[in-house]
Each structure stands twice: as C-alpha cells, then as structure tokens.
Amino acid sequence: MDNTLIGQPEKPLLKRRKAKHAMKDVVYEIKKESRFRKTLIIAAISLIILVMAFFITLIIGSIPSFKALGIRFLYGKTWDPVNNIFGAYPFLLGTLITSFLALIISIPFSVSIALFLGEYYPKGWFSNLLKNAIELIAAIPSVIYGFWGLFVLVPIVRQMEMKTAVLPYGVGILTASLILSVMVIPYAASMGLEIVKMTPLKLKEAAYSLGAIRYEVIRTVIFPYAKSGLLAGILLSLGRALGETMAVTMVIGNSSRIPKNIFAPGNTMASVVANEFTEAAGSVYLSALIELGLVLFLVTAIINIAGKSIIKRFSKM
Amino acid sequence: MNAVVIQYRKTKSTLFKSVVIFFSLLCTVPLLCILYYIVSKGTKEINWHFLIRLPMPVGEAGGGIANALSGSVIIVLVAAVIAIPLGILGGIYLSENKDKKLAYWSRLSADIVQGIPSVVTGIVVYFWIVKPMEGFSALSGSLALAIMMLPILVRITEETLLRIPNSFKEAALALGVPYHRTMLKVIVPCGLSGILSGALLAVARIAGETAPLLFTAFGNPYMNVNIFKPMQSLPLMIYNYAISPYNQWHNMAWGAAMILLIWILLLNILTKLATKRWRVQL
Questions:
Q1: What b-and-e string marks burial along A171-184, b requiring 16 or more CB atoms within 10 Å of the CB?
Q2: Do residues B90 and A51 make contact, with C-beta atoms less than 8 angstroms apart?
Q3: Based on the domain organization, do A11 and A124 belong to the same domain?
Q4: Which of residues 72-101 of A touch B (CB under 8 A)?
Q5: Measured between alpha carbons, how far is B202 from B207 in angstroms, rounded to an integer?
Q6: In whole angstroms, what is the distance from residue A193 CA to residue A229 CA?
C-alpha cells in the first residue's frame, strides 16, 4: 500500500482491491481495539463483582441463622451445637483478646524496626539482612508457625504456667497471641519504615540546627510526622491478626467456653470456622458458622479500607 | 549544670537507640528458632524416597509425600492460570484509567479482597463450587487461591505500568499503532519483568495457604491428579499430620514443612533476583 505513494502508480483494479483490504484491516483493528477495551473493563468490573458476590453469598448463607437466632447470636454466651444453641460471644471475645494482645506485643517491635531501618541504619549489609529477615517472617506460611508453636512454644508456655498458679494447659489465648504477634510484625514494620523514610530532611535538619539530638529529633519530628502512617500499619496488622486462621487454630486450644483468663484455652471466629465447618451437621449450625464468616468479612473489610485511606491521604501530602 | 543536662540528654538518646536495636534484633529470634527447628528436624526426614513415595499407614516406616507435593504443584499452577490473566488485565485497566469512577471502585475492591481472611474465602468457594458439584475438588481449592492472588497481581501490574514513561505510549500511538497493540506490544513488554516478579510473589504468598483448602481441596491420602477430585497439598498435609497423635507423622510433617519452606524461599529469591535485575520496585 505504501509503495503506491512512492513508486509507479499501479493498475486501478489492484489499487482498489488493496484499498479495500486496508479498509478491512482498519475495521478489524478498530473492532479488536474496542474488544480489548471491553476486556479491560470486564476485568475491572469482575473485581467489584467478586466482592459483591462474596458479600451476597455470605448473607444468603447466614439467613437461616438470622431467622433462628436473630441478634442474640452476637451476645449469646453458650455455643452448644448438640442442643442447637449458638452464641458467638466467646469467639468474639477470643478474637478480640488474641488480636489486641498480639498487637500490643508487636507494636514495640514493629516501631523499633521502622526506626532502625528508616532512621538509624537505612543502608548497609546489616540493615539489608534485617530487611530480608522481616520479609522472611512474612513469607513463612501460617501453618508452619502453628506447627512450630504447637511443638516448641506450647511446652515453653506450659513450663511457665506450671511455675505460676494457673492450670498448665500450654495451649491457650496467650500462646496464640505470642505466635500472632510474630506473624503481624512485618506488616506494621514495612509500612512504618516507608513513612519514617519519607520524613522531610529539612524538618530534621532544622531540629538538629536548633540543638536537638537524635532522640529528640525522633520524638519531636519523626514521630509526629509518621504517626498516621504507623497507625495505618498497625490497623493493617490488626486486620491480619483478626483473620489469621491456621496458626491460631493449632495453638489456641479450641474450647468453646468463655476464657476465664489469658492462659485458658479459647477459640477465635476463624478457628471455629476452620475446625467445625466440615463437620457441621444441621442447617442452623452451618449457617451460624457462615455468619461468623460474614462478621469477619465485614470487620476486616472496614479495617482495611480505613488503613488504606489513611495511607492514601498520607501519600497525597 | 549545663554539662549535666547535655550529658543526661545524650545518655537518653543512646539508651533509646540501644532499646531500638535490642527490639529489632529480638524479633529475629523466633525466626531463627523456627528455621533452626525445621532444618534440624526436617533434614533427618528428607531423602529421595520421601519425595517420591506415597504416605504409609501409621506404624510402617518409609512413607513419603509424593501425593502432597504433586497436589500442591497442580493446585497452585491452576490457581496461577486462573488469576494471572485476569489480574494483569485488571492492572492494565487501573493504570490506564487512574481517575475514573470504575477504577476507584475496583481498586477499593482489590483492597477488600486482599484483606479477606483466607478462611472466609474457603467458605465462599465451598458454596460456589463444592456444593453445586457435590464434592470437594482441587479445582475449588485453586479458585480459592486464585482469588487470594488476584489483588496482589492487580496492584503490582498497576504500579509497574505506572512507572513506564508516558512518552513510550505517545510514540507508539503517534506512529499509528492501535491502542491495544500499543498496550500489548509496547507497554506490557516494557513492564513484563515487574509483572512476572509480581506473579512469582503472588504464587509464593499462596503456596503455603492452608485455610482456604480445608473446605475445598480437602486433602487425600492417595495419589490423585484429577482436578475434579479431592487432592492433597503440602500445607494441608502438614496441618493434618501436626495435629495427629502419632510421632512418626509429626516427623513427616517436619520434613514436609522443610520442603514447603524451601519452595517458598526459592520463589522469593527468584522474585528478588528479577526485581534486582530489572530494578522494579515492588
């Protein structure tokens, strides 16, 4: 087709045919292009549909439980599948205690790592090593954490409990929180690290020039600046801790009674579902478990959206 | 007086620094402990037979993890095949239409999907596939894992493509290249390394997932390569063997844990190498 412009004029018939082909090609390309755009849009919509479908499936699944139990489900204190009594309060309590305990244990560690890698030693082989170690903590599957916890941490906790006046189960809320706290450190740490690094150099230099020393710079410049970023990281790790299943299931002791103290065995929402879902006989029982899933879904969705919106606001600054 | 104050402030600063270093180092202790346990217990178990034999009944020595290994590979591969095209397309859309309403909502959805607890994914996929098909199947497990991979892929594709200079696209379009060809033949190949390492990372993240497989792939003590039947996978096997009362099974679980860890580490190292080689920021 291009040759016709430069070279000798071709025979009219041939020219027309070529032009026709070119026209066809263009139409074909346009069709392909619009098909491509449509595919992209479908891919984007499918993500939204996925979330909607999750929500609807969980709602439909928990209708029998809504009907049979109503709002009582959330504050009922007994979980007795044999007699068809389902109260999720022990699990809500168990989930909240393990997650917040894990969070409290992990905060000093994650903030330290954020400061260590973001402020004190941002470069060098040693900080690289630590960074890789943190990534490794995030990469280890939760079932391996649970396995290790069951065979190493549980005996240690039992030994400790034997020295005090509590019943030495070994398994229990405390053990689960300890394992969880290790698992959630990377989430808060990596988020905090990025934010600490983003602290404007000018602010730090100004503080130094006023005579502040390292600690004071960290306390008066970096902390206020990185506060919301650290908070977002902690929120994300809270979401992680609430939904963590395998490691918790393996070390929490799986008791459906309300835990008396943090050494007693308990259960979280995720661990109940993991343990009892395949064995659930009866529609209300199954549906009660799905309702637990629905609660987990909603709570983690809200926490994640909150965390991400904080980060987004931060990155716009 | 002044000197005393300065000395006090300096001491406080040093003290704070040592506390930070102490906590940072302390958190590697559980990691080292876990690695030490798995390596010391696992190496005793692992030999050639361990990899190629099927599990034996309790009491008989010499069982292996062939079914779990093959099952894990199949489930993860199928999940990757489901998730990677969709994830990449979604990522392309998000990078191309940054400010559209649809992009906002699908980005939000990706964030939500990323936060969904894995056990909830298991429940939902149970109702989507296992119940209508009346039986646990490896395919349902793959779908559950694919859902978990999706947000990672979308995010990394988007971030990678956003880094590619706009002039590339403008140049291609100015030459008269149609839009879809520009995207598929110019922009995506430019970011291919980043997208690939994102895919590797996503696979590494889901390779060790157990919770979504509990009610989907379910596990299987026999060899099975049919994706419409229940299938064993390494994490499931570790879980089942770890909570069993038999010492011999615990030992096998340590061996399996080591294999799983090696697999995930290799994927992570590959991702690292790819990102370093192509200077992609994940």
A1: bbbbbbbbbbbbbb
A2: no
A3: no
A4: none
A5: 9
A6: 9
Q: Are residues A178 and A190 in the same domain?
A: yes
Give the whole-angstrom CA distance, residue B106 versus residue A57: 19
Q: What is the tens place of the pLDDT at every residue in A49-99?
A: 999 999 999 999 999 988 888 888 888 888 888 888 888 899 999 999 999
Please tell me the total count of domains within chain A: 2
CB–CB contact A304 B16 (8 Å): no
Q: Give the gap in angstroms from C-alpha B178 to the nearest C-alpha of chain A.
A: 7
A283-316 and A12-69 helices, crossing angle to 10°: 120
Question: Residue-wise over A203-228: b if at least 16 C-beta within 10 A, else e?
Answer: ebeebeeeebbbbbbbeebbeebbee
Element housing A150 (H / E) = none
Distance, CA of B277 to CA of B282 (rounded, Å): 13
pLDDT of residue A12 exceeding 60: no
Contact A245 B211 (CB under 8 A): yes
Residues A63 and A205 in one domain: no
Chain-centroid distance, C-alpha A67:
31
Q: Which among A46, A69, A92 is the end of a domain?
A: A69
Domain boundary among A34, A69, A104: A69
d(CA A96, CA A89): 11
Distance, in Å, from the CA atom of B224 to the CA atom of B71, rounded to the nearest integer, reads: 7
Give the pairing type, strands A85-86 and A79-80.
Answer: antiparallel
Amino acid, res. B230: P
End-to-end distance of chain B based on CA atoms, in angstroms?
52
Looking at the structure, do residues A54 and A104 belong to the same domain, yes or no?
Answer: no
> How many degrees, rounded to 5, is the angle at CA A304 between CA A301 and CA A308?
140
- Determine contact, residues B239/B255, Cβ cutoff 8 Å: no
Same domain, A158 and A60: no
Which residues, in sequence order, are CB contacts of B167 under 8 Å at separation 6+?
none
- Cβ separation of A305 and B112 shorter than 8 Å? yes
Q: Tell me the per-residue pLDDT of A184-206, one tens digit each, with 9 for 90 and over.
A: 999 889 888 888 888 889 999 99
CB contact under 8 A, B109 and A47: yes
**DSSP symbols for A165-184:** SS---S-SHHHHHHHHHHHH
Same domain assignment for residues A29 and A90 = no
Contacts of B90 in chain A (CB under 8 A): 40, 43-44, 46-47
Of A167 and A97, the structure prediction assigns the larger pLDDT to: A97
Closest C-alpha to A43, from B116, B260, B126, B106: B106
Asked if pLDDT for residue A1 goes beyond 50, the answer is no
CATH code of the domain containing A251: 1.10.3720.10
Q: With a threshold of 0.80, does the pTM exceed it?
A: yes
Widest pairwise Cα distance in chain B: 82
A35 and A100 share one domain: no
Same domain, A84 and A41: no
- Domain B48-278, what architecture? Orthogonal Bundle (1.10)
Question: How close A187 gets to chain B, by Cα (Å)?
Answer: 12
> Collapsing DSSP states into helix, strand and coil, what is residue A248?
helix
Residue A302: partners with Cβ closer than 8 Å, 6 or more residues away: none
User: What range defines the domain where residue A103 resides?
Assistant: 72-316
Domain boundaries, chain B: 2-45, 48-278
